[in-house]
Specification:
Elements: H1 10-24, H2 29-35, H3 40-55, H4 63-92, H5 100-107, H6 111-118, H7 122-129, H8 140-150, H9 154-162, H10 186-192, H11 198-205
Helix pairs in contact: 3-4, 8-9
């Protein structure tokens, strides 16, 4: 077993859980989760398997049968751990996103359908795509609407609008926005937009921005 402070592997933690439960005669799941919260999912999975295994009546096995049973048990646990690791790896993958205009063109035969769905004008979408809008001033609802309309994660669209995503040369990152155009707030852009109705403007004025809504920007609709 690794000393405290050393990197401990998930297999070591699972072995420790099984051994401690067997030695004490009690389920040490809660204690192990408190000690190793990073492996909570794996511990709960093997605990569930152990609970099922404990319900199976004991019987006499030949040496050969016991080897087969043990091999199957190990295989089940390994498969569970593999599936969990694959799920975690998939969740961490960066979702492909080519830019607002590119995504709209590829998904909508009529871009007006998209603008109507999200409640924003073409001019505002172009400014957002060019990273010319100060991110903190964008309403959370605007990002949610865009993400949902494009079938993307909220975090994917938010990251793009922050200018942190690597984009094709035809698009600019936030720090590469044309200096001549400058950057503006969403509110300034919205108030100057003649394509939005007064009703739409009133709606967006009432929406909290990323900066003021008190939530973590990486959470929310579309995820």
């Amino acid at each position: 077993m690794n000393n405290k402070g050393d990197a401990i592997k998930v297999d070591d933690v699972l072995d420790l859980y099984l051994m401690s439960s067997e030695e004490t005669g009690t389920d040490t799941l809660t204690e192990m989760i408190e000690r190793f919260p990073q492996y909570e999912d794996e511990l709960r999975e093997i605990a569930a398997f152990k609970k099922i295994d404990d319900l199976i009546p004991d019987r006499e096995y030949t040496d050969e049968e016991e080897q087969v049973v043990n091999a199957r048990a190990v295989s089940i646990v390994q498969n569970l751990l593999y599936q969990k690791r694959q799920e975690n790896a998939s969740a961490k993958k960066v979702e492909a996103f080519s830019g607002l205009r590119d995504e709209i063109e590829s998904q909508y035969s009529n871009p007006d359908d998209f603008y109507q769905k999200v409640g924003l004008s073409e001019g505002i979408i172009w400014a957002l795509d060019a990273c010319q809008v100060i991110f903190q001033t964008i309403p959370r609802k605007a990002i949610e609407n865009i993400a949902n309309a494009l079938g993307k994660l909220f975090s994917t669209v938010a990251t793009y609008l922050r200018g942190e995503m690597q984009m094709a040369s035809s698009h600019c990152k936030a720090e590469q926005a044309p200096e001549s155009a400058g950057k503006c707030t969403f509110s300034e852009l919205m108030e100057m937009d003649d394509d939005l109705t007064e009703e739409q403007k009133a709606y967006w004025r009432a929406q909290p921005t990323i900066e003021t809504d008190g939530a973590v920007w990486g959470e929310g609709g579309g995820e």
